[in-house]
Amino acid sequence: MNRPSVSTRAAVFGTAVLALAACASTPPQSGTSSATASGAYTWWDPYPQHDAGSAWAERVGACGEEAGVTIQRTAYDTTALTNQALLAGQEGNAPDVILLDNPAVSTLADAGMLTAMSDFGLEVNRFDENLIAAGELDGKTYGIPIGANTLALYYNKKILDEAGVDPASITDWASLDAALKKVKEAGKKPITFAAIGTEEGSFQFLPWFWGAGAQLTQLDSPQAVEALELWTSWVKDGTAPNSVISNSQNTTWEEFLTGEFAFAENGTWQIDSAAKADFPTGIVQIPGKDGGVAPTPTGGEFITVPVQKDTGRYDVTKKILECMTTPEGLVETGTTFAYYIPSTAAGQEAILAQDATLKPWVDAVRSAKGRTSDNLGTDYPKISEALWTGVQKALSGAASPADALKEAQARAKQAVGG
């Protein structure tokens, strides 16, 4: 996904395909086809907003030219892309390259539809371990990240100044709570976030969940309960608005842009929008409960290579992938989309040389964690659905955080067959 398009599922796998920032439902670009033309290599991605004349399309085409072929690109929205990928894999006519939202990689790999990078000799050691982990399943790597985005807390500097809050003082939950109380006492709205009952809700809750020391294999642990108690307390005492229960990440951002909120949890993809806000903004890392930076979930697409009957095609495919993921290539992708942080150390240093203000986001990406990491693979969507359902119950007052997560754990265990 090109932003945490947090969202969708292929029906074949129940609720198995995610996208962190919902792209508009748009049909494939006109003039494109999934069929392989003579001398052409086919490429599918979830960026219908970037048409054939866009900088992104030119970037993809240039890597094809460097590999000596023409790339025939088709753009779907995220939901349609995954469904088409599953169908094409089953019918044996998959494209040469597909860009998938990272949690979907394990779904297609588990179905036997993707080729492991090692099978055609692509080197993966240069990618950050915490990022590439989302493309791994059972010890093999099935996708490589073209970049990454993640979450942090944006702040309204005007409100913090008026409330006497130094953002640098926010280093753990206690100091964050103290800052939020100062904002509230100053008559301003402290914080907003997205707790909607979809993957977006899980995506936004995970930094607090992981930051408390909780694990996705045990949704009702004491640490998990602490995280949900934090969110629930904010809604109950008015620190956060009731709207968070139905907020998507986009609506949360719209709330923040009104200038009424001190903090909003959101992602790298809002960098440009924040710079254009009617008030000065900044970001702080989401703190862990007892200090340090909380692990935040990674968003972003992975380049994957579907299984081909003609294995001779992989040599050219490898050249295309290498072109897309050089340090310069990763920076170009990050610049084209304006919110991707390169997924290699060399790429990160290169983009910081261009724009040093991205340093907080590079730091956030370096400490981020893949949602399917810990070898959760295709179990993650089932666990996530149980989690966001529990969060919704607690925030709405239908159950206490402890009871909501106890039920969530039971539901997750049943769903994954544990």
Give a brief rundown of this model.
With 418 residues, the protein is of the alpha/beta class. 42% of the residues lie in helices and 12% in strands.
Question: Can you describe this structure?
Answer:
This protein is an alpha/beta fold and 418 residues long. Helices cover 42% and strands 12% of the residues. It has helices at residues 55-66, 78-91, 102-110, 129-132, 157-163, 173-185, 199-211, 222-236, 249-257, 271-275, 314-324, 327-337, 345-354, 359-366, 380-396, 401-416, and strands at residues 40-45, 70-75, 97-101, 136-137, 140-141, 143-145, 151-156, 189-192, 261-267, 281-284, 301-304. It is globular.
Sequence of strands across the biggest β-sheet: 2-1-3-11-6
Helix content bin: 40-55%
Mean pLDDT: 89
- Globally, the shape reads globular
**What is the string of helix and strand elements?**
EHEHEHHEEEEHHEHHHEHEEHHHHHH
Main pleated-sheet profile:
5 strands, mixed
Low-confidence stretches: 1-38
C-alpha-based Rg, rounded: 21 Å
Strand-pairing-aware structural class: alpha/beta
How many helices does DSSP assign? 16
Per DSSP E runs of 2 or more residues, the count of β-strands stands at 11
Content of β-strand:
5-15%
First and last CA, distance = 30 Å
